[in-house]
Amino acid sequence: MTRSTKSLDELFHEVISNVVLWAVLACWMLEAGMNATFGYKIAGYGLSVIFVAVAVLGAYLAVKVFAVRGKDLRAWGRRAMFGVPLALCFSLCQAAGWSTLGTMLADGMTARETLATSRSSAADKLRLARDERAKLGAPRPIGTIKAELELEKTRKSAAYPDGRGPKALALEAELAAAERAAELDELIPNLVAELEGREQVAEGTPHLDVMVRLTGAKPDEVAFWWPVVLTAVIGFFATFGWPLAGVGRGGHELRQPEPDPLADFDWGPRRLPPPSGYHQNQGFGEAGTAGASPSAQRVSSRQTADAGSPGHASFPSGGPAAAHVHGAPINISVALPAAGVGGGLEPGASPSPAAERIATEPKAMLPAPGAGAALRARVLETPPAAQRPVDRRHVQELIDHLLCFRAACVLDAAGGVVPAREMYERYVSWAGERAISEQAFDTMFGELAGIARVNFGGVPHYRGVVLNREPRLSAVGE
Fold it and tell me: Angle at CA 71, nearest 5°, toward 66 and 74?
């Protein structure tokens, strides 16, 4: 069993497609969360669930709108049918987002301003304490100053009976300065620790300075429009991101295998009688055999003779469906044995009960062992002259039609990738009314044009080509 290896280009596009899908999912979850928060703050869990449902419905309607194809009146009617509720859902989500996101941003800016103000106040206290301590200098020890002050107060006089003369007053001032310096020495480390423990937040509105400079608007105006624009961006990708990422355009497509014209005979003959007028309709009746070749006349006469005998059953190969795919059906006469394989009817003998049941009840019988292989060999040995020629002009015209589109609108380019949906839309614009269905185009175009068809993130693409925006040819037959 061989394992198909992906090229680097395919892996890159697959990774990008998956990343885009995850990004769209993240935007949708943000929008659903804002809707849920808005509904819960207004009326509790009930309204919260309703607003989440609105987000889900909006994404679904966007996929449905993008899935509508065609430019006729019916297509535009379907777009309007999905577009009106989509616009309503998008508007409700935007309103909920403005309220929720605006409140969150306002609360965040208020908390940020509080933190900045608190840190600024602590910084101012520390700066004032350091400045005051610097002015006090290096005082003498407090104990020395107190001892000198007590000694000076003992020196009393008539002018200073309490002993508080000029020198005593100077010592008191020096003592107060020394005590204040000691208090500041203890306070400054505490203020430093308090400032370091606070969150470092700059003052003012630095988060708006860039937009203020770029737009020239005032900080209040920028603070107003910021949640509006952010909600619009999130809402756009949450709602319209799914169809833009390829959701709803089909994923892995299973192609039906080419039908085998002899597949119906692998298990043995069906033993069904031919439909009424079958030989005449296929050109092998009395009128058809008149102008046929001798071999064709022999086959037709033998079929006519065998169809009336009880020991034979005539049936078409492949059924009616095969007439449209692999040409006209071939009537084949099979001798039905009386008993076992290889046992035929003796001349003049009557058919056996088994043969009679086969002739009268063909659907209830199983094929004899080896009948399928014998029938296949017999079909393969049928002379070409006994088969009706098939008119393949329509098929050839369709092939030429697709190849003309390939030559006119598709260019080979190494590393080029074109989404299958975009390729079909380009084909429709080129072919006009002669365009075939999208299913038929996807099934045949890649094989006929020799273009590799791959899937990136579940979305079909054509690899190795690009679209030519200036077609050189027109559609076949125009």
Answer: 85
Are the C-beta atoms of 266 and 376 separated by less than 8 Å?
yes
The values of phi and psi at residue 414, to 5°, are -65, 125
Instruction: Say if residue 141 is in the same domain as residue 237.
Output: yes
Element (H, E) at 419: strand 410-419
The total number of structural domains in the chain stands at 3
- What is the token pair recorded at 244? 């833009």
The tokens for 38 are 């808005």
CA distance 219 to 153: 65
Going by C-beta distance under 8 Å and a sequence separation of 6 or more, which residues neighbour residue 303?
279, 284, 314, 331, 332, 333
Do residues 382 and 407 both lie within one domain?
Answer: no
Same domain for 338 and 227? no
Tokens of 29: 């979850």
For the chain, the residue count is 478
DSSP structural state of residue 157: -
Per-residue pLDDT band for 396 (boundaries 50, 70, 90) equals: confident
- Asked if the structure places residue 210 within a domain, the reply is yes
Q: What mean pLDDT value characterizes the chain?
A: 74
User: How confident is residue 472, by pLDDT bands cut at 50, 70 and 90?
Assistant: low
Indicate if the pLDDT at residue 361 is higher than 60: no
Integer Cα distance of 258 and 163 in angstroms? 126
CATH number at residue 448: 1.10.10.10
Q: Which of 368, 369, 372 is nearest to 266 (CA)?
A: 372
**Boundaries of domain holding 454:** 393-467
Looking at residue 217, its pLDDT comes to 82
Are residues 63 and 199 located together in one domain of the fold?
yes
> Would you say residue 42 has pLDDT above 50?
yes
Q: Do 241 and 269 reside in the same domain of the chain?
A: no
- Last-in-domain residue among 322, 355, 386: 386
Radius of gyration for the chain, computed over Cα atoms and rounded to the nearest angstrom: 47
Instruction: Note the maximum CA span of the chain.
Output: 175
290 and 342 together in one domain: yes
The CB density around residue 417, as the number of other CB atoms within 10 Å, is 17
